[in-house]
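<purpose> Linking amino acid order to shape
<body> The protein record starts here
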Amino acid sequence: MQILNAAITNYLKRRIKNIQEFIHEPMKTQKEQWWHLVNTAQFTKYGIEHGFKDIKTITDFKNQVPIVNYECFLPYINRILKGEENVAWPFPIEWFAKSSGTTSEVSKFIPVSYEAINECHYKAGKDVLALYCHNNPNAQIFAGKGLIMGGSHQVSDYNNNAKYGDLSAVLLQNMPVVAKFVNAPKLAISLLDDWEEKLVQMVEATVPKNITNISGVPTWTLVLLNKILKETGAESIYEIWPNFELYIHGGVSFKPYKQQFKNIFTQEQTKFYQTYNASEGFFGIQQSNSATDMMLLLDHGIFYEFIPMNELDNDHPKTLTIDEVELNTNYAIVVSTNAGLWRYKVGDTIKFTNLSPFSIEVTGRTKQFINAFGEEVMVANTDSAIVKACAQCTAEVAEYTVAPIYMEGGGKGGHEWLIEFEVMPSCIKEFTKNLDEALQQVNSDYGAKRQKNIALQQPLIRVLQKGAFFKWMKHRGKLGGQNKVPRLSNNRNYVDSILKMPVLV
């Protein structure tokens, strides 16, 4: 183990030098990525259709290649799924990340090439560890095992040419031998399709191990950790894993869950590192122990563009490259990747918090917002507001979702919050008041609509039973892995679906 630990540490030191290089020359790095992608794919069918061989500049690229969403690109994906070669990427694509996201009931199949697996996802994973070890010279995470809280879907055969699963399942299936050696539990358990059975086996398999780090979505990781504490009778995870030091999280905002994790990881040695790893690519990682944003990864086989929000609904929206963006402005993210996605709208919105290095925060989803009355509320707003309200009322939230209350019969509109508390506030009326005021502070449009109750009334909060969202997600067949409770919706489909179940306190 000491030899392995030394070898890994030396590799990670070399990666730090590479990271520092792209930080110092960001646009040069991005141009190199862009040129490599276009040049590599110029003789694919997509490249021929859009004249890649004639593209000489990024402006040419923008003029000749359309911006697409999943539905627009789906005909090409279907051709790849059926085994057609050289469609949008010249090398074989045998893997697809199956994802329905939080706003669509239709499964999406995102192509994942071997180049994307190795030069994007795994490379970025190594970078997370490199930065962590660089920031913490006494780190001993490789002296034990890493627990990966992966997807709940087995890798399945779409046909003889293609396999699919949650992104985490695809990455686990292709994991290098050395990574399998330092991670737990066994692959057969990590890829179990039955989420509840998987939890049972994960507890049995990991409690006896020397777990030093965990990677996973906060919501489902909490479910596992709470089950471990319940089964063992321990009050702190350090009673079970005394050498634990790092939790790597992503997929949803960590803000609403941070206090719960601190209650479980009771020692100050625990570090929390945020990542932005989507099916389309690994985009960002936390750069330091205390950072609340993520460094944008510029040399991982991805070329980025950013759509200002006022351009989003245009037929031909203007896009910006990283040398044109501004701080604290919401943008929709567009990527071209080494899996053959071209000018693809990921569906996320971000804002830049730093331009050297380029650092970002994920502010929401382009389809996950509330703007029924011109309030333009995004997930980052509601996450911040609920954290502040919880702190003021000594409460903890397990899950929540929000939808508009439409104006009917001359009444005022509003927002309806369905909240499952881990720790209930002593007074819901006070919690509602604090939540409302906090949301007004972080969103001036919402605040303007709330003034004197002119357009919006005070939020309506409905408290759900513990485990309510788990039951609802199970009912929808979306337990575990990268499935997430939708935070915001501009319609009432999710809220009405939940309220049909016996979930209210």
